[in-house]
C-alpha cells in the first residue's frame, strides 16, 4: 500500500471545499513540519555540483544528520548529501521522518543522466521500480512530483537565459528507476557524459531551478499543486520512447500538469498472433498493472485533479492500441487529445 502522507484521495468539486482543503493542509504543514527533501550524492559530479551551487546561496545552515548523512536547512527545505548511489537510497522520506519528526512533502533527487547519444541534456522525470538493476521494486511507482511539468518549463527558461541551449537539450524522460520512496518524487539530471556532468554552468542552472522553483529567494514557488486544485487536468502519458516527444509537446504549454509518463518498453504486451484481429481480445502481459499503478499514484499526487490519459498512438500497433483503449474504458480512465490539455 502506498502512503501519500497528507495528500487527499477524495475528489471535491466545489471551490468552497477546495479552499477549505488547502487551508487544512496549510495548518497541517505548519503543525507537523512538512518539508521538501533535496537529495544529492558526493560520488556523482552531476549531483554534488548543483547541490554545492545551491548551498552557496543564502540562508542555509547545518541540520540534523540522518544515519551519518549530513543535512542542510533553508526554510522548509532540507538538503541531504550522502556518499552512496542515489538510486539505492530507499525510504529516505520515512528515515527522515523517524529521525526528525518532520513529514516529507516531496523529494527532489539531483543526478546524472546517461545516454548512448552522449548529447548534453538537462532532464526531468518521475520514477518507478521495474528496472531492478537501477533501484526500485517491481509493480511499484512513487507518486510523481506535481512540479514536474512547471519545472520542465522553468528549466527551459533558465537554460535559454543562461545560453545553455541549443547546446543542451532540455527534455522530459519517461518514468524509470528507483529509489523506493512514498513521497511525490522527481529526478533533475545533467547529461550525458562526464564532460557535461562537471559543467559548472549546467550545475548553476539546476541550482537556480531549485532555488526559484521552491521560492527560496522570496518569490512564489513554482508548481505548488495545493494552490491549483480546481479540477484541472493532469496528463498521464502512455506510450512512446524514452524521451516521450509527443507527450512533451503538450507539456511545453503553460499550465499543463504532468503525472507519470509510461514509455512503450514499460508496457509488456504479449503478441496474440493470428488472433489479434478478434474483437474483445485478451492481451497478456503486465501492461495493465503498469497503467493502473501509474494512474493510481498520479491521482494520489494530484488531489482534486482529473487524471487524463494521453496516448502516443503512433508508437503502438493497432492491436496494442485497441487493447489499451479498451482497458482504459473498463477502468473509467478518460483519454484526451492534445487540445484537451490546453
UniProtKB/TrEMBL annotation:
<dbReference type="Pfam" id="PF04414">
    <property type="entry name" value="tRNA_deacylase"/>
</dbReference>
<protein>
    <recommendedName>
        <fullName>D-aminoacyl-tRNA deacylase</fullName>
    </recommendedName>
</protein>
<keyword id="KW-0378">Hydrolase</keyword>
<dbReference type="GO" id="GO:0016787">
    <property type="term" value="F:hydrolase activity"/>
</dbReference>
<dbReference type="InterPro" id="IPR018033">
    <property type="entry name" value="Deacylase_DtdA_archaea"/>
</dbReference>
<keyword id="KW-0862">Zinc</keyword>
<keyword id="KW-0479">Metal-binding</keyword>
<dbReference type="GO" id="GO:0046872">
    <property type="term" value="F:metal ion binding"/>
</dbReference>
<dbReference type="InterPro" id="IPR007508">
    <property type="entry name" value="DtdA"/>
</dbReference>
Amino acid at each position: 500500500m502506498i502512503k501519500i502522507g497528507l495528500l487527499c484521495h477524495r475528489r471535491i468539486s466545489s471551490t468552497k471545499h477546495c479552499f477549505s482543503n488547502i487551508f487544512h493542509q496549510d495548518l497541517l504543514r505548519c503543525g507537523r513540519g512538512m518539508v521538501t527533501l533535496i537529495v544529492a550524492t558526493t560520488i556523482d559530479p552531476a549531483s554534488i555540483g548543483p547541490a554545492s551551487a545551491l548551498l552557496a546561496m543564502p540562508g542555509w545552515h547545518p541540520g540534523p544528520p540522518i544515519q551519518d548523512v549530513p543535512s542542510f536547512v533553508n526554510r522548509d527545505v532540507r538538503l541531504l548529501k550522502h556518499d552512496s548511489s542515489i538510486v539505492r537510497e530507499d525510504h529516505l522520506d520515512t528515515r527522515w521522518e523517524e529521525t526528525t519528526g518532520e513529514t516529507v512533502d516531496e523529494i527532489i533527487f539531483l543526478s546524472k543522466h546517461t545516454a548512448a547519444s552522449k548529447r548534453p541534456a538537462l532532464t526531468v522525470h518521475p520514477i518507478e521500480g521495474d528496472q531492478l538493476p537501477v533501484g526500485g521494486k517491481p509493480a511499484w511507482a512513487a507518486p510523481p512530483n506535481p512540479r514536474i511539468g512547471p519545472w520542465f518549463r522553468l528549466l527551459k527558461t533558465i537554460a535559454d537565459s543562461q545560453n545553455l541551449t541549443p547546446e543542451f537539450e532540455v527534455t522530459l524522460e519517461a518514468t524509470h528507476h528507483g529509489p523506493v520512496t512514498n513521497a511525490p518524487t522527481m529526478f533533475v539530471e545533467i547529461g550525458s557524459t562526464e564532460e557535461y556532468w562537471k559543467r559548472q554552468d549546467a550545475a548553476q542552472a539546476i541550482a537556480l531551478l531549485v532555488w526559484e522553483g521552491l521560492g527560496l529567494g522570496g518569490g512564489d514557488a513554482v508548481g505548488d499543486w495545493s494552490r491549483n486544485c480546481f479540477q484541472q487536468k493532469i496528463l498521464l502519458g502512455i506510450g512512446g520512447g524514452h524521451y516521450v516527444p509527443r507527450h512533451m509537446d503538450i507539456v511545453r504549454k503553460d499550465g499543463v500538469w504532468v503525472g507519470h509518463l509510461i514509455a512503450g518498453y514499460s508496457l509488456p504486451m504479449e503478441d496474440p498472433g493470428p488472433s489479434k484481429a478478434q474483437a474483445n481480445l485478451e492481451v497478456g502481459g503486465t501492461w495493465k498493472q503498469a497503467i493502473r499503478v501509474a494512474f493510481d499514484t498520479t491521482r494520489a499526487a494530484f488531489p482534486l485533479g482529473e487524471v487524463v490519459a494521453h496516448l502516443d498512438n503512433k508508437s503502438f500497433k493497432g492491436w496494442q492500441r485497441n487493447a489499451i483503449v479498451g482497458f482504459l474504458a473498463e477502468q473509467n480512465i478518460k483519454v484526451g487529445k492534445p487540445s484537451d490539455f490546453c
